[in-house]
Design a protein that fits this description.
alpha/beta; Rossmann fold; four-stranded parallel β-sheet; globular; binds 1,3-dihydroxyacetonephosphate; binds iron/sulfur cluster
């Protein structure tokens, strides 16, 4: 007698050729797979579109697919659902949250807003639908400076929830803003000391960073931008080597687009893999397949906040196109 290992029903249900099965499900469901650069390489490779938060929102707003499979985190899938209330929006793992979104509870934010009654609220897209519904304009890391620059100089502004992006936007625009004190656990993990050590080992390397990083890291960067902006920069830069201070999932695309160049992930303070976003990494190719096959888990938005959350996203899309 041979002992048999216990196998879960989901394991037995997985086809051998997951890539082929997902491609077939895309056709059967008329589905589009949208993925953020922080997803694991296999997910990036099966996606119909890979982008930063702005690109993903624009694509979600334009899609003619019946089903949107969002390979990213919850606030991104929620944004796609707000833009497409009648479509099925699937998220491979509903627990794929975000520390920034978690840092801004609706009741606390309502009190914060009430304490600054004459302020316009600009919220980073990394927030829940509830916070979006309490905002005037949504922004992403790629358009925050552009959007703030479009507002009259005398307009008072609350910026939430990322204090690091908020401070960076203040520096770039010369505007004072009231900042909500949220942060990203991934981008705050980078160690200035270890980045400088790396720079000494590779003096020819350029440091590129996401604006969610702290100022101690940003001040050493020769280029700061959203994930798409970083990807574009490493392509056009004459440099051959880069220290990349953002979630290392982006390096998969960097290596695909400029294979002759070298990319070194910025190290975290501790000896851990905490420069990888634990939320983004909850999604796997297997979960993506199962979500499509079973048409669940689905992202839903309470009706009461749908239209209030839509207006500031639409304002962002309009202002971004100017
Ligand atoms: P972008 O997609 O705007 O580059 O932001 C990165 C991020 O942290 C998303 O959660
Ligand atoms: Fe949120 Fe940071 Fe993860 Fe982006 S990297 S999803 S901001 S926790």
């Amino acid at each position: 007698m041979f002992a048999t290992a216990s196998v879960s029903p989901t394991q037995t249900a997985l086809p051998k050729d997951l890539f082929g099965a997902i491609e077939q499900l895309k056709k059967d469901l008329n589905a589009v797979v949208l993925a953020h650069y922080y997803q694991e390489p296999d997910i990036q490779d099966i996606a119909d579109y890979i982008g930063d938060s702005l690109g993903l929102s624009q694509r979600a707003a334009d899609t003619e697919a019946d089903v949107i499979v969002f390979a990213g985190v919850h606030f991104m899938a929620e944004t796609a659902k707000i833009l497409n209330p009648d479509k099925l929006v699937l998220l491979p793992d509903l627990d794929a949250g975000c520390s920034l979104a978690d840092s801004c509870a609706p009741d606390e934010f309502a009190r914060f807003k009430a304490a600054h009654p004459d302020h316009l609220v600009i919220s980073y897209i990394n927030c829940t639908a509830n916070i979006k519904a309490m905002s005037d304009i949504i922004c992403t890391s790629s358009n925050a400076v552009k959007l703030v620059n479009q507002l009259p100089a005398e307009q008072k502004i609350i910026f939430a929830p990322d204090r690091n992006l908020g401070r960076y936007v203040m520096e770039q625009t010369g505007r004072e803003m009231v900042l909500w004190q949220g942060s990203c656990i991934v981008h705050e993990t980078f160690s200035e000391k270890k980045i400088l050590q790396l720079k000494m080992e590779h003096p020819d390397a350029e440091i590129v960073a996401h604006p969610e990083c702290e100022q101690t890291v940003l001040r050493h960067a020769s280029y700061i931008g959203s994930t798409t902006a970083l990807l574009n920069y490493v392509q056009r830069s004459e440099n051959e080597r880069f220290i990349v201070a953002t979630e290392p999932g982006i390096i998969h695309q960097m290596e695909k687009q400029v294979p002759q160049k070298h990319f070194i992930p910025a190290p975290p303070e501790a000896n851990c893999a905490c420069n990888e976003c634990p939320y983004m990494r909850l999604n796997t190719l297997e979960k993506l397949y199962l979500a499509m096959k079973n048409k669940t888990p689905e992202v839903t938005i309470p009706e009461a906040i749908q239209s209030d959350a839509l207006a500031p996203i639409q304002r962002m899309l309009e202002m971004s196109a100017r």
